[in-house]
Amino acid sequence: MWYALVDCNNFYASCEKVCNPALAKRPVVVLSNNDGNVIARCALAKALGIAMGAPFHQCKEIIARHNVAVFSSNYALYGDMSRRVMETLATCAPYVEVYSIDEAFLLCDVPLAEATDYALQVKRRVMQWTGIPVSVGMGATKTLAKLANHIAKKRTQSGVFILAGDSYCQSLLETIDIAEVWGIGSRYARMLRQHGICNVWQLIHADDSFIKKTMTLIGLRTVYELRGIPCIQWEDAPPPKKAIVSSRSFGSPVTEHRHLEEAAAHYSAIAASKLRRQQGATGAVTVFVSTNPFKDEPQYSSSATVVLDMHSAYTPDIIAAAHTALWSIYRQGYRYKKVGIMLTDIVP
Fold this sequence. Notes:
alpha+beta; MutS, DNA mismatch repair protein, domain I; DNA polymerase, domain 1; Dna Ligase, domain 1; 4-stranded antiparallel β-sheet; 12 strands; globular
């Protein structure tokens, strides 16, 4: 079994380009909901030197000079496009874990010799069906898949990388800074460098007792994952900062609205708890539902986003928004397999 991490490239900007094909060769940036800062850039905008998080007023000159298309954030659009991407990924693997608005883990059973072709197939299908470009990284663990995706984005033309076999080697891993490892924050990276551990290869071969003492069992788990030993279970990953997703598949299909509403409230509470743990507040709540695409029965999937009047981490606010969204997309006569909540427009 292999983990694949599929990450949409410049997601918000890519969504805007999908909706307006005339923007294909124009730089695009997306601003925060108050139009204060740049929160997404396409590759062309990055090449112009427009920095992530830059205040809009500081970029006006370069934006005007290079005819950059500027958009206010549209979380309803991004939530809907995210649903389409995730539905497409569900046709590529039997197990899909939505990690954030633009990332998902796949669990796939393919021989190593066929892994690159499989990853390219996933990439092509998402592009053909949704118009969103993605990068695909694969490895024996979630952490290795994350690292492989980083390599795919930064060091390949194909946007695909398999961190296994001959590629899992010293000559590559010693060129990757420890700060690129999933779960290694700036504080840990600084501490590790002070002890002479500066790259991934050195971290893999670090002493277990030292790692456990300085980084606790969670840090040791990260090192084991880098060694190819799975420690992060399915749907057991730390929440990303740009979006929080809480969802599950039902053991048995659900048909009644009240059962979906109960599940939506439960997952909203879980997402709100994760949001508070990272000391954030959300400005948009998305609900998505779907039937089972692998069953020969009527199919339906949809999503809706409610933009909050004020950013909030208060559970009742999030549940109320989720219920409003759910009412707008619920349709009778379908056997629902999955419901999920996604929180976006997250601010400290």
